């Protein structure tokens, strides 16, 4: 049986370092993908939230459904969790910095960690928060060494590697692959991941975004396998003899979805997971 999760050694090391550090921070900011805020939650947060406040930054707001994002922000507010939704290609961080200032004492900058699973925009968020001209700094007296610190604009921030949950079930891992946060190759390959995505988009009445982009033509009675083949023909993913290269078609479809080229979409709403 193949691996079902991508969890290299640097993730385990990063998790240990952050666990050691949590009690010396003012706040932890967890970056999640606005298209699936529940399923892109970091496995670190549950254990770290007991020793340090946690706020949520919903990245890729520009790729998510605006109405769904508003519902998620209301959900976090009702739960007592500070949350922001951000387009990290055009970040507006002034309000975020004002909100964070209250978590630190007046005599020094706010100390925080930025955490999240791979490819949700952690590095972009950190760069926007502390400023592109911020300087990496060495060990801080009284604070665990061995992690990367950045100082800028009244903030001292530590970065961390993207960390996945090695115990996450297959359904979560497939969703992360659709969003570009996990590797399709280690959870069954692009073809299986694409077929699952086709099924979900059709079940949730979201397939129209694909039709609007590529005009595949997929009546309700068409099987998901036949839809993938039709998609491959539409994209010109053919091999000698005119057969469809299903693996290539699946890869192009999943990559187009994960990068937002198919349009804005949210896969889950509060209370569904």
Describe the structure.
By secondary structure, this protein is α/β, with parallel strands linked by helices. It folds into 2 domains: 9-158, P-loop containing nucleotide triphosphate hydrolases (Rossmann fold, 3-Layer(aba) Sandwich); 189-258, Orthogonal Bundle (Conserved Hypothetical Protein Ylqf, Chain: A, domain 2). 37% of the residues lie in helices and 12% in strands. It has 10 helices and 7 strands. It has helices at residues 9-21, 45-48, 66-78, 94-101, 122-130, 170-178, 190-203, 208-214, 224-235, 246-258; strands at 27-33, 54-59, 83-85, 110-115, 135-137, 149-152, 155-158. Strands 3-2-1-4-7-6-5 form a 7-stranded mixed sheet, sandwiched between helices. α2 links the parallel β1 (27-33) and β2. The longest helix is centred in the C-terminal third of the chain and has 14 residues, at 190-203. The radius of gyration is 20 Å and the shape is elongated. The two termini are 27 Å apart. The model is unreliable at 1-7 and 138-144 (pLDDT under 50).
The CATH H-level superfamily of the largest domain is P-loop containing nucleotide triphosphate hydrolases
The CATH first-level class of the largest domain comes to Alpha Beta
Indicate how many domains the architecture comprises: 2
Number of helices: 10
Main sheet strand line-up: 3-2-1-4-7-6-5
> Given the helix and strand composition, which structural class is it?
alpha/beta
- What's the CATH topology name of the largest domain? Rossmann fold
Instruction: Average the pLDDT over all residues and give the rounded result.
Output: 84
Biggest beta sheet attributes: 7 strands, mixed
CATH architecture of the largest domain: 3-Layer(aba) Sandwich
Termini, distance in Å? 27 Å
Tell me how many strands there are: 7
Q: Tell me the overall shape.
A: elongated
């Amino acid at each position: 049986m193949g691996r079902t999760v991508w969890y290299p050694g640097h993730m385990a090391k990063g998790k240990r370092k952050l666990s050691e550090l949590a009690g010396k921070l003012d706040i932890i900011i967890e970056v999640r993908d606005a298209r699936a805020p529940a399923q892109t939650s970091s496995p670190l947060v549950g254990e770290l939230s007991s020793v340090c406040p946690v706020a949520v930054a919903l990245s890729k707001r520009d790729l998510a459904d605006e109405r769904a994002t508003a519902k998620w922000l209301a959900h976090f507010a009702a739960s007592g969790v500070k949350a922001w939704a951000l387009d990290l290609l055009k970040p507006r961080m002034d309000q975020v910095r004002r909100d964070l200032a209250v978590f630190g004492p007046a005599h020094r900058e706010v100390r925080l960690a930025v955490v999240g699973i791979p490819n949700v925009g952690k590095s972009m968020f950190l760069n926007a928060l502390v400023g592109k001209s911020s300087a990496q700094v060495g060990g801080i007296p009284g604070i665990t060494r061995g992690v990367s610190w950045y100082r800028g604009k009244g903030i001292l921030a530590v970065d961390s590697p993207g960390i996945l949950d090695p115990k996450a079930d297959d359904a979560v891992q497939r969703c992360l692959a659709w969003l570009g946060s996990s590797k399709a190759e280690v959870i069954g390959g692009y073809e299986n991941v694409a077929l699952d995505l086709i099924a979900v988009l059709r079940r949730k009445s979201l397939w129209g975004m694909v039709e609007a982009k590529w005009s595949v033509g997929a009546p309700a009675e068409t099987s998901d396998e036949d839809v993938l083949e039709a998609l491959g023909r539409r994209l010109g993913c053919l091999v000698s003899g005119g057969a469809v290269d299903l693996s290539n078609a699946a890869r192009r479809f999943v990559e187009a979805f994960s990068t937002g080229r198919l349009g804005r979409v949210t896969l889950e709403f509060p209370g569904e997971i």
